[in-house]
Amino acid sequence: MHWHYEIIQFDNYVGLHEFYYDDKGELKMVAQEPDWVGDNRLDLVVGLELALEDAKEKKINQFDDLPKAIKKSHQNRNRPEDHASGFESRDNIQEVD
Asked: Of 11, 42, 58, 95, which has the fewest beta carbons less than 10 angstroms from its beta carbon?
């Protein structure tokens, strides 16, 4: 059983979604909302590469140092689940019949 990312082509954009397959390789769940979008595969990949470069090189901003308006809009967000565990408990996961 494992999660990984796959691209879904929609009418006017592509979305990078999490897919979950069982041990037999059968698709069991797909995240309803994409983690990243682009106009096409190249646009999506370039955006991800730029984001990865920034994540590696830019400073980490401390929440308490952000402007009050930004903190207010983020204050009620829950901590994301630990992706390292291989399990996901998000509201936007759609089981496949």
From this structure: 11
User: Between the CA of residue 49 and those of 17, 46, 87, what are the distances in Å?
Assistant: 16, 5, 25
pTM, 2 dp: 0.69
Q: How far apart are CA 90 and CA 41, in angstroms?
A: 25
The candidate with the shortest Cα–Cα distance to 5, out of 24, 30, 41, 26, is 30
**Tens digit of pLDDT for each residue in 73-85?**
776 666 555 444 3
Buried/exposed code over 56-87 (b: 16+ C-beta within 10 A; e: otherwise): eeeeeeeeeeeeeeeeeeeeeeeeeeeeeeee
